[in-house]
Design brief:
- It is built from three helices and nine strands.
- The protein has 225 residues and is of the alpha/beta class.
- It has one domain: ABC-type transport auxiliary lipoprotein component (Rossmann fold).
- The longest helix is centred in the C-terminal third of the chain and has 34 residues.
- It is elongated.
- The termini are far apart.
- 35% of the residues are buried.
Length: 225
């Protein structure tokens, strides 16, 4: 495996934390997982395939929904696979990248979850010509492999979702979703598998919450029988 462009060298600290830091540094150096990605190396592109099983408890709705383009800070939405070896340090896996930005992966996961659920007939991205009753807006705060003091990282995804009533842009509901799935090891394919699990959890959570929140609001708008 390739060596990292910038080896991880922890500052001196207490004995227990020093042992953990040395273990992490050995893992990074041995597997070549961290670095800036320079040197024209031949990289591997990862394209997670995420499918979400619908929860039978999700309501069946008649209204239409558009999914807006998700937003994220530039570093979060980078094609590189981010890794956080310590709380204040963000690096990337050398020689590895995503096939799509994090925002696109999130949008696709949520959209497919809603389409495949059979609980809503009309759902599409904002640029598709439907006349939505509600609009889903998402912001990705974290999409990274986080060691969090452990010898093995967790794929961590944090997203804030907002549901708007499209006619007047009224905020119907807002919620932050967080998923952290520990990888089975430190190798990039193992980390990518953890990202697939985290993305499926967040996608299912947002899809179910959107249907429930929209339906609760929709019932208040319909005239009484």
């Amino acid at each position: 495996m390739t060596s990292p462009d910038r080896p991880f060298r922890p500052a001196p600290r207490s004995a227990p934390r020093l042992l953990l830091a040395l273990a992490l540094a050995a893992a990074f150096s041995g597997c070549g997982l961290l670095g800036g990605g320079g040197g024209g190396e031949r990289g591997t592109i990862y394209a997670p395939v995420v499918r979400v099983d619908a929860d039978p408890s999700w309501p069946r709705v008649e209204w239409q929904l558009s999914v807006a383009n998700a937003s994220a800070p530039r570093m979060v939405d980078s094609p590189r696979i981010n890794v956080r070896p310590s709380p204040a340090e963000l690096q990337v896996y050398a020689g590895a990248s995503w096939a799509q930005p994090a925002t696109d992966m999130l949008e696709t996961t949520v959209l497919r979850a809603l389409e495949d659920s059979g609980h809503i007939d009309a759902v599409a991205r904002s640029e598709v010509g439907i006349r939505p009753d509600y609009k889903l807006v998402m912001e990705v705060h974290r999409f990274e492999s986080d060691y969090a003091g452990s010898a093995v990282p967790s794929a961590t995804i944090e997203v804030t979702a907002k549901l708007l009533y499209n006619r007047d842009q009224r905020l119907v509901a807002s919620r932050t979703f967080l998923a952290a799935h520990q990888a089975s090891g430190t190798a990039v394919p193992e980390v990518v598998a953890a990202f697939e699990a985290a993305l499926a959890e967040v996608g299912a959570g947002i899809a179910g919450w959107t249907l429930a929140s929209g339906e609760a609001d929709w019932k208040t708008l319909e005239p009484p029988l």
